[in-house]
Write a structure and sequence with these properties.
The structure is a single chain. By secondary structure, the protein is α/β, with parallel strands linked by helices. The chain folds into three domains: about 50 residues; about 160 residues, 3-Layer(bba) Sandwich (FAD/NAD(P)-binding domain); about 160 residues, 3-Layer(bba) Sandwich (FAD/NAD(P)-binding domain), CATH 3.50.50. A five-stranded parallel β-sheet has the order 6-3-2-10-21, with helices on one face. α1 runs antiparallel to α2 and α4 runs parallel beside α9. The N terminus is likely disordered.
Length: about 450
């Protein structure tokens, strides 16, 4: 805004006063002139101050806008576009490596870069790292609410709370209007819950983020029945945890497959059903959800009353951000985890199409995200240094699930820890894996976020 013209008004008043005082003594004239000079000088300083405030340097405006943005945001929300004089610069170059997403792949890529002494910036909408493998336990209240997430500040040189809306090679456009460029970019975000055309799907609560888990934790504590759609790892863990925590809660789990955990081994499928049966969980298999409303879900003509949770998996939607993708919407990557056809952008985690050494698709899991994040981070460093990139080999080693109540399931190739008594071991393994993740990414400081 233009500075107010207070100086001219005060100067005019001082001149008029000086003119009327011509009949006064020389001493009084001198005093009047000095007074007018002081008034005029003060007015000019005030005007100059307002002009300075209205014409801040771009760096100062950026800092001010960033602080305002941080103060207004809440977890899980997107930043509103800035307007007026506080608008952020449209294009900004990021030193070092730019990482989009603060999940397992993102923080492991960031750790590789940070430990090599290079600057790393993470873009994430909440500024927090969600412990996805513990979210079912958080929602079911068998682990502390604090297990849901932790601040990303300890993982990167800088954290930008925003969401990606588009990407090009070496650049990312954010929902706050900025486009960030970098010599090396790693994209690890872009997956979302599957949303089939089921009438009333909006009534179902998702379980994908820490915010989702905390919302469910509060809601489940005040209902009599729970209907979980999806018999995969997330659904089974939530059913087991909620049924253990609230013995009077009626829990039903629904899946269109003929068995729970259809992608896991026979032992895990069998003993998942056993543990849930011991906790009086009703299992409905081979049926699809017909509709959902505020009071429950209709399956095979039967209305199942209760709070409905959608845990039927997620899908990558990289194509919506302008990224090269396969038919399933996942980012197409090569052996170096470079995005196909691009030279400065890598992809890792659930949003990417990862293959094993035989060319077979790998499951979207935390362990694959960790391996891919490590590999993408290392190759990003090589790209910055002008060194040859290396192939990233990803290996699926098995599954470890915690069903709450000191029971769980684990399988590693032909070894299965699922039968009675052996099912006591997986929760301990799960805890140990979480601790290893914290130490690998944050060192001793990570022990401050030990899981409960």
């Amino acid at each position: 805004m233009p500075a107010k013209q207070t100086g001219s008004k005060r100067s005019a008043a001082a001149t008029s006063a000086s003119t009327k005082s011509t009949a006064r003594t020389n001493a009084k004239k001198s005093a009047a002139k000095k007074s007018a000079a002081r008034t005029k000088s003060a007015a000019k300083k005030k005007s100059a101050g307002k002009k300075s405030a209205a014409t801040k340097k771009p760096a100062e405006k950026k800092k001010s806008a960033a602080k305002s943005s941080s103060a207004k945001k809440t977890a899980g929300t997107k930043a509103a576009p800035r307007q007026g004089p506080a608008t952020l610069p449209k294009t900004e170059h990021i030193d070092g490596v730019l990482i989009v997403g603060g999940g397992y792949a993102g923080v492991h890529a960031a750790t590789k870069v940070r430990c090599a002494g290079q600057p790393v910036t993470i873009v994430a909408p909440t500024g927090r790292h969600d412990f996805v493998t513990r979210l079912a336990g958080v929602a079911g209240a068998t682990v502390p609410a604090s297990d849901a997430s932790t601040s990303l500040d300890g993982y990167a040189s800088d954290v930008i709370e925003a969401s990606m809306i588009a990407a090009a090679d070496g650049s990312v456009t954010l929902d706050d209007g900025r486009t960030l460029t970098a010599d090396a970019v790693v994209i690890t975000a872009g997956a979302r819950p599957i949303a089939p055309p089921i009438p009333g799907l909006e009534h179902a609560l998702p379980l994908r983020t820490a915010e989702d888990a905390l919302t469910l934790r509060e809601r489940i504590a005040h209902v009599d029945s729970l209907v979980i759609i999806g018999g995969g790892a997330t659904g089974v863990q939530l059913a087991g945890s909620a049924a253990h925590r609230y013995s009077s809660l009626d829990v039903t789990i629904v899946d269109g497959a003929d068995e729970l955990l259809s992608t896991m081994g026979a032992s895990s499928r069998r003993d998942a059903a056993r543990i849930l049966d011991q906790r009086s969980v009703r299992v409905v298999l081979g049926e699809l959800v017909e509709s959902i409303d505020a009071d429950g879900a209709t399956v095979a003509g039967e209305h199942l009353p209760g709070l409905v949770v959608w845990a039927a998996g997620f899908e990558a939607r990289a194509d919506e951000f302008g990224l090269p993708s396969d038919d399933a919407g996942a980012i197409s990557v090569g052996a170096y985890l470079l995005v196909d056809g691009w030279s400065h952008t890598f992809a890792a985690g659930d949003v990417a199409s990862h293959l094993d050494a035989d060319g077979d698709p790998l499951p979207a899991s935390a362990q694959i995200a960790v391996q891919a994040g490590d590999g993408a981070g290392e190759n990003a460093l090589r790209l910055l240094a002008g060194e040859p990139l290396r192939d990233v080999e990803l290996v699926h080693r098995g599954w470890v699930l915690d069903l709450g109540g000191y029971r769980g399931l684990a399988e590693f190739g032909l070894l299965a820890l699922t039968a009675p008594f052996f099912d006591l071991l997986p929760p301990l393994l799960h805890w140990g894996i979480d601790v290893r993740h914290l130490v690998e990414t944050r060192g001793v400081a990570g022990l401050g976020d030990l899981p409960g």
